[in-house]
């Protein structure tokens, strides 16, 4: 057999195997998992793209498949937060917090992280509404529940998004605690250019 033809054949077979493997992995990613997971993943992608209506639609479809899917509830809450529908956001976070507090088992580290994120995000909403004591209480609950889950952006996030100035839950809680101890006329509770950099948590 002609060596050039044989080499071309081998290369084509390797490429075909690589494409098949990639297709299989992609198919598994989007179809495997528990009920609701597929639509939560789609919702997360739309959320990251800022397509909030499409994200909400996918989170709702996830909840049709799996009522109380914690990723879907968190997704809805984050959509409401990002679109400044704060009362609806608080209601979603409250629902998720109650659900997790009632159902969480000791060795569920993912659930624990989700609960901490729900407290932290609720605190961010209260912060934006000017309810600073409520915000502080929520941040403290987040830190008590799982500080690692709300410790701020990791190294990869900082490299990809340049989020070097993002405040952590702990920093914001410490700041609010110190300010709330001051007389009202001496407090500086909101610095928009810093506070607006707070990121939402979506495990």
Keywords:
0% strand, 203 residues, mainly alpha, elongated
What is the structure about, briefly put?
The chain is mainly α. It is built from ten helices and no strands.
3D structure, described in words:
- Helix 4 (70-82) runs antiparallel to helix 5 (86-103), helix 6 packs antiparallel against helix 7 (132-146) and helix 7 crosses helix 9 (169-180).
- The chain has a domain at 84-195.
- The model is unreliable at 154-162 (pLDDT under 50).
- The protein is built from ten helices and no strands.
- By secondary structure, it is mostly helical.
- The radius of gyration is 22 Å and the shape is elongated.
- Indicate the overall shape: elongated
Helix content: over 70%
How much of the sequence lies in strands comes to under 5%
Class by SSE composition = mainly alpha
Low-confidence stretches: 154-162
Mean pLDDT: 83
Terminal CA distance: 56 Å
Number of strands: 0
Number of helical runs? Answer: 10
Order of helices and strands: HHHHHHHHHH
Indicate the radius of gyration in whole angstroms: 22 Å
The largest pleated sheet is described as: none
